[in-house]
Specification:
The protein is of the alpha+beta class. The protein is built from five helices and seven strands, in the order E-H-H-H-E-E-E-H-E-H-E-E.
């Protein structure tokens, strides 16, 4: 399996938006109203918002290439970029998204392990993420990878409040 990873820069902004929209739609469009999906995409994945996130030194994006094709991406946050108050000893995986045609190839596990290595290199005590309560495949995957549910928070898809489980893996 040939996976290459590249850290994203501002020059990757348009490509980041393109893969973000594609993978988000693939993952969530069937389970949500078109109006709520469009409202979320306009709010969270517009170029201005993504540029702000890319410029934040406490956030990092990485493109994953499989056989030289862009297959997915990872976003991690530390410090005040985390979407929940988890403290300086934590690293958040905010997004792991893989294009449909590359799922079941080990890319998600590869990116998750990469995030864990980053957390260890930064002497973090734990790594955490939020996952939609209805995304059973992802929840099962994270359990298998040693994460446990420790709480939940609200996530707004347009005007609909949804619940994300907070899942944590202790590293030390």
């Amino acid at each position: 399996m040939t996976i290459n990873v590249k850290r994203c820069t501002l020059e990757d902004l348009n490509k980041l938006q393109e893969i973000s929209i594609e993978t988000f739609n693939d993952t969530f469009r069937q389970e949500n109203s078109p109006e709520n999906i469009e409202a979320y995409l306009e709010r969270a994945l517009n170029l201005e918002q993504l540029e702000k996130e890319l410029a934040n030194c406490s956030s990092q994006f990485f493109f994953a290439y499989f056989k030289h094709e862009l297959a997915g991406y990872l976003k991690v946050n530390t410090n005040d970029a985390q979407t929940e108050e988890m403290g300086d000893e934590s690293l958040e995986i905010e997004r792991i998204y893989i294009k449909n045609k590359y799922k079941k190839q080990g890319l998600g596990k590869y990116l998750l392990n990469m995030a864990i290595e980053m957390a260890l290199e930064q002497n973090k005590q734990k790594i955490w993420l939020g996952v939609w309560e209805k995304n059973e495949n992802a929840i099962a995957f994270y359990h298998k990878m040693g994460f446990v549910q420790t709480g939940a928070h609200s996530f707004y898809m347009g005007d609909e409040e949804q619940i994300d489980y907070i899942m944590v893996k202790t590293l030390k």
